Structures are given as structure tokens and as C-alpha cells.
Amino acid sequence: MSDPSMVIKDSWILNTLMENAGDSIYIKDKECRLWRVSRKMANDLGFKNPEEIYGKTDIDLFGKEFGSKTMIDDRQVMETGQPKLGLIESYHDENGETNWTSTTKLPLRNEEGQVVGLLGITREINELKNSEIGFQWLATHDPLTSLANRFLLMDRIEQAANHAKRNQCIFSLLFIDLDGFKKVNDLQGHDKGDYYLKKLAKLLTRSVRSSDTVARIGGDEFVILLDGIAHAQEAEAVAKKLTETIQKEIDTEEHQVTASIGVSTFPADGGNPESLLKAADQAMYEIKRKLKEE
User: Fold this and answer.
1) Entry pTM
2) Active-site residue flag, 220
3) Which of 74, 142, 179, 220 is catalytic?
């Protein structure tokens, strides 16, 4: 026979935990219905009294798509008797915001050792996850223009090459280098130069399709990946139009900041990212050389 004082003590500890814990804590029965929840969990879900949630399932609270996934994990814990530790989950609320959580689910057993439910502990990790996403973004994007950087560009070219090989199609790279940009930096300062770079980034982005990739790979060097084109002449036409647009819109007062654009096409000019980028770079310098001779 159990000691009544121990029962009272255990109940007091559970109540204290449920009322004051900084994490969401819940107990579910074998049917995945909530039997007990912490006050934090209730408040986060918009309920003043935790008892208002008792008997509900995750489908009732979060909808079928998300609730069905969590209930699969719940049933696995209760059927196998094995805990699930540190489950990373994301839920999109009614405002479209993403809530990231880390959850641990433990089987609850009766005195005979039979699993009769589960105990869940969920912690919000939005700051951690957002920092992780932020670090990933910084690793793949240019901080000044928010365009893709060289690392992400090379990955996109690799993907485009694999797709083109499977579907026997082509794609092109446009290598863009600004002419007259160094003079702007020297005479008007880096702030003015940065202004032109950000202005160019916006111009390039709106001038191509959303399926294309615009990247900044150096000081005043940009590359556009034109994916899924029918023939190389399409890329040449885009390059010509961009050259004219850049001359008109980037330096609207003096028109001294212009661009030289070289084009390479897969597979005619290379079969991998490095060779394609080099071919487009060489084509760009050839255009610069011809302009100087004129």
C-alpha cells in the first residue's frame, strides 16, 4: 500500500510543475487526447483555463495537416514504448507565422508496466531556428544586395546542368561587369558605389524570370543563370537588352556606368559550373576589348 503522504507530495509536485513551467507540458491518453496540460501551453493556445483543452486532440487544436503528423509520433511512442527526443517541428499559425519547437515525448506506464499514455515537453526555439536560418542565408547570399553569392550560384548551376542532361535542354550564364564603376567609387565614394550596386541588383532581378538566378560574385561582377531556354539566341537577346537598360537606368545623370555582358551556354561552352563561368567571363572580357578598340 502506498504512503498517502507520498501521493500528496507527488500531486503537489505535478501541480507546481504544470502551473509554473516555462515549457509546454502535456499528458495524453492512448487515444491521443489531452488529459492534462500546463498553464503555459493553455495560454499559448488562447485558453485561460487549462481544463478547457482536456479531451481535445492535436487535430482539434492545430488542424488536420499538422495534428495528424504529431499523432503519428504519439502512437509510435505508445506502441513501441520508446521515447522520441528533440523532435523539431514547425507550425504555421492563422497569421501565417512559423512557430518552431523542440519536443520530447515519453511513454507513461502504469504499475504493471503497461503504456497508458505519454508525457510531452515542448520548448519554443524560434530565436535559435531563426538564427540558424539567418546564418544559412548569410552563407548563401550577398549581404549588400541580398542576391545569391558565388556559393549558391555554383550550386544552382550544378542543379541546372543535371536537369539539362536528363531533359536534353540548355541554359545560359550571363557574366556582367560594370564599366566606369571604379571611377564612381574613386570620385564619389563607396556609398555612391554601393547605391549603384543595389540599384543594379534590383534592375537585374526585375528584368529576368523568377525561375532565373541573379548573383553577385565580386565587387562589380554579377552573373545571371537563365534556366530552361530554347536556344542560345535567347540569352544573347537578354544580354543586349540588359546592356541597354543598364546604360539608361543605373547612372541616369551621366550615363557613365555601363556594362559588358558575356554569355556562355550549356553544354556548348562547358559541362560543369567552373567551365561555364570561365567561358562567360572570357566572353565578357572579349566584349570589353572590342569596346576599347572602337
Assistant:
1) 0.63
2) yes
3) 220
